[in-house]
Design a protein that fits this description.
A hairpin with a 5-residue loop joins strand 13 and strand 14. The mean pLDDT is 92. The chain is globular and about 60 Å long. It has six helices and 14 strands. The strands form three sheets. It has a six-stranded antiparallel beta sheet. A five-stranded antiparallel beta sheet has the order 5-6-4-8-7. Strands 1-3-2 form a three-stranded antiparallel beta sheet. 25% of the residues lie in helices and 32% in strands. With 251 residues, it is of the alpha+beta class.
Length: 251
């Protein structure tokens, strides 16, 4: 484990300790996939309390962790706000990318750890942020590239998001991770192995570096810089012993 990872692990353990000693819920910043992997692979008996994670919507990738003392038996509140970023004039708006939105917010002097996922829907963007920064971003983010924008706080209770799904069906020799990845992404098997061994593949938020890892129904697989999909399961088996499977790829 590298120095930065050890520092994060110690910080998470300290948040758990404070939660236990004070009897309150404590929260981390937004954690990326690597950081969530550190959380999930830290032995449970290292923490003083239980924990849960959430990023503002069900299938979020970047998530906060909340540590909850045993005395608390309620659905935790998360200090997350949803901001809607819209062009002032849709007719003249540029096609803005995820990178454009992220860069514009970071240029306000905000750290990446205070920001969650960014969802692009039509010509709008929805960004999940720490609640302490919501008003600041609303007041100061007025332009992205050459497009004038306005920002407003969405009602998180009524906000819902269903990702666009591309169904991928095909046959594989086994339910090994490398076989399923080769079906999900249009790249050769020779390029799949470096992705896995290079620490770019996560299953349900946990880093997996073994090609032969066996997937289970409804596992969420994230590949950094490639995308995410859900392994839905086996639907039948061919006469030659291959498995007919279904994937839901987020697009």
């Amino acid at each position: 484990m590298q120095k930065e990872e050890i520092v994060l692990q110690k910080r998470l353990i300290e948040l758990s300790r404070v939660s236990y000693q004070r009897g309150i819920a404590t929260y981390s910043d937004f954690l990326n996939l690597n950081e969530l992997n550190i959380l999930h692979t830290t032995p449970q008996n290292t923490f003083f309390t239980k924990y849960e994670t959430f990023g503002g919507y069900c299938s979020s990738e970047r998530q906060m962790v909340v540590f909850l003392p045993d005395a608390l038996y309620y659905t935790p509140f998360y200090p997350i706000k949803v901001l809607k970023i819209s062009p002032l004039q849709k007719k003249f708006a540029e096609e803005l990318s995820h990178r454009d939105y992220l860069g514009a917010v970071l240029n306000l002097g905000i750290e990446r750890c205070k920001l969650g996922d960014i969802l692009l829907i039509d010509k709008n963007a929805y960004i999940f942020v720490h609640e302490s920064l919501a008003d600041f971003i609303c007041q100061n983010l007025t332009r992205i590239r050459h497009t004038s924008v306005y920002v407003e706080i969405e009602d998180e209770q009524s906000f819902s998001y269903t990702p666009n799904i591309e169904e991928i069906k095909g046959t594989v020799a086994s339910i090994r991770l490398d076989s399923i990845l080769a079906l999900a992404f249009p790249i050769s098997r020779n390029k799949i192995v470096p992705l896995i061994e290079g620490g770019r593949v996560f299953v349900n938020g946990k880093l997996i570096t073994t090609n032969s890892y066996s997937l289970k129904e409804n596992d969420i697989i994230s590949v950094r810089k490639k995308g995410r999909f859900q392994y839905r399961g086996i639907f039948s088996q061919t006469k030659k012993g291959r498995y007919y499977v279904l994937l839901h790829k987020y697009v």
